[in-house]
Amino acid sequence: MPSLRTRMVARDLAEPHRASSPLELLFDLTFVAAVSQAAGRLAHATEEAHAAGAAGAFLAVFFAIWWAWMNFTWFASAYDTDDVPYRVMTFVQMAGVLVLAAGVPSAFDGDFTTVTIGYLVMRVGLVSLWTRAAIAHPEGRATATRYAVGVSLVQVLWVSRLALPGDGPAWAFIVCALADLSVPLFAERPRMTTWHPHHIAERYGLFTIILLGESVLAATNAVQGAVAHGLSAGLVVIALAGLAILFTVWWIYFSEEPGEGLADRRDRSFVWGYGHYLMFAALAALGAGLEVAVASAGEGEHGIEADATTVVAATAVPVAIALAMLWALHAPLGNVTVPPHFIAVAAVLVLLTVLGAPTIGVAASLTAIAVVLVLLIAAVLARQTRAT
């Protein structure tokens, strides 16, 4: 059982064997519903040939998902006490995630009211934790106070945005998002919080697995629906190619070990942490793309409106972005395992499958993407073998 109350002081940044707590893992699971809703809506819009219109809503919703997860993750790495008050405030944030997830469908239709309310609930829980840290930890009081005040002020902007017609223009969202992103940059200036580099690396890895798991779930549901209307060779090829793509993307992502890099270059943590927005969004979009690819195997009345080029692009573009971000995130840490020229060649070849889609079809294009990723892994392994 947790203690009733523990003084909230900064944890040791060199704490040995630091790992994710069961509460953090449970917290992550609440994001499954939100990510699933966002990816599912993007998939349906792509199937109906409205991907361009839905992309903005997807990126906006995913920003709220990612930023809320990220804020709690870095706070927990520095101040996790796992006592009763801490668990209660974590529960409040989890409740906010579920409200946010419920509002995703409306957000794709242009109404961000429910998403904003869910986001507000999450921020109330986070501000309470920062306030508690400011009271209990004198050495970090300035930083914790800046976080509490900064998050609160930005949340006023988000709520005020709802008063504008249609939730306001796109630039209003961008202003609020930039204000949110600026809070840690402002708050960490007096004293950087004692987040644990290996713990943070593990937390990001676990969220990556959740996103890839969502891709598996989306593809499985799509296969189940397609099989109900008759199994085809094209469906089998797409399903196997999709699984191979997911597996190789997982392999490539975890080829890098950022823990030591974050420990040696703590000043570059903002680049690594913020940059994961594009990486995570790409992985979530990949799940949507694979769902669309499976749906494209349907025939007749069970087919989709999107053409082969759009279907393949829905998978190829997220994969190419993920590859590019792999280098962009780890290069500043000085520990890149996959050479940049390998990444560049693979990303270009993946994007070229979009051009060939009308000729060779969806199944062959996804197979080609999988082959490119397998060859990338093989090239990296061969290079490591020669080096040893």
TrEMBL record:
It comes from the Bacteria. Coiled coil: none annotated. Keywords: Membrane, Transmembrane, Transmembrane helix. InterPro entries: Low_temperature_requirement_A (IPR010640). The keyword Hydrolase does not apply. It holds the Pfam family LtrA. The chain crosses the membrane at residues 51-72, 84-104, 116-135, 170-187, 207-227, 233-253, 274-296, 308-329, 341-357, 363-382. This is Low temperature requirement protein A.
